[in-house]
Sequence to fold (378 residues):
Amino acid sequence: MISLSPDDVVKMLKVLRDMEPSYAKGEILGSMTVDPPQYLVEAFKTFINTNLNDLKLFRAAYELEVECIKWLSSLMHGDGYGLLTYGGSESNLTALYVLREFTGGDVVLAPKTAHMSIRKSCKVLKMNLVEVGVKDDYIPNIDELCDLIYRYDGRLTCVVMTAGTTDLGVIEPTDLLVSKCRDVKYAIHVDAAYGGLIAPFTAELDPSIPIFDFRLSNVYSITVDLHKIIAPVPCSALLLRNKELEELITFEAPYMPSGVNRSLLGTRSGGIAAAAWAAIKSLGIEGLKNLALDLVSRAKYLSRSLTDLGIEVLIEPKLPIVTFRVSNKDRVMKQLWDLKMYVYPTSLPNSLRIVVGPHITYEVIDRFVDVMADLIKK
Ligand code: 0PR
Fold:
């Protein structure tokens, strides 16, 4: 095989990447990934060759991680425990592992709306997943969930509630569950991978948004993804209620200078801490709040525009996800993909999803709505 020069391989990769769908052109409509600003990529690169699990050697990287966790935890009214991970799936898997060790339980209860990574985690951890249905308004059946909590008392690892479901962006009523199901002990893991950095800000203006954070005493762990709103992939956090839980994810590693390894992974790039830290420090509460409110406003605009065309939007968006009904999911999706409008299917019948990330501008929305108007006419 002929070897290529470093310049050539980079050039070739750029050509290949340019053949893929583009954020800047507003083509990526349904994915939850974002195009991170260059300075966050720079931040990541600066620490790319450090290891968060070598915390004596790379002290600064570790301290960035601790600072990020404290900040994110305070947003969730927690006491500063947890760790950064490589994504929502790893955060969820870690949460279920930690809670299994903590409770000794073998049953996980979750509404059917839970992300696929919950089912996957139960399989990996050999736990039994018991699913609960959702009602016509796409809200989990809390009474059924509560009955099951009593039925599995003594065997429960946790109940999983989602703040920002994958299909619809529903913020499930964790607060209602806690207030209705009070005379029994159980832990809740909240998967706020998608909603965690949006809902705390929109909730200030919209009291109907359910509380799902550590203010609820049953909440023991929360997943929050930074790479679903601003940061480069991978970048997620698992926040934990207390030190005891954090210790369950700290393993002895006598051959390491620190003597310990935190997380389910081994080597973890400090890039994730640097990118998360740079995002938090540069945007701050105000910047993140403005971003969150802006994305939700754009989603509402998209939802209204589709409704005006006579298209059914499944729920009024509280998070920047717009899911709408079409006559034939496969056909309409193909028509849109042929036009480089990459919308996503959902697990609901004949519906498609748009995730309004920072790259989905009003212009992109208008263009999409015009195309939908044309498709309807045809
Ligand atoms: N929890 C929820 C509620 C999620 O929606 C997702 C991912 C996860 C956990 C897992 O997060 P990671 O993917 O970071 O492990 N939701 C997106 C989805 O399934 C993931 C996605 C991202 C899909 C980018 C496509 C894509 O291009 O829709």
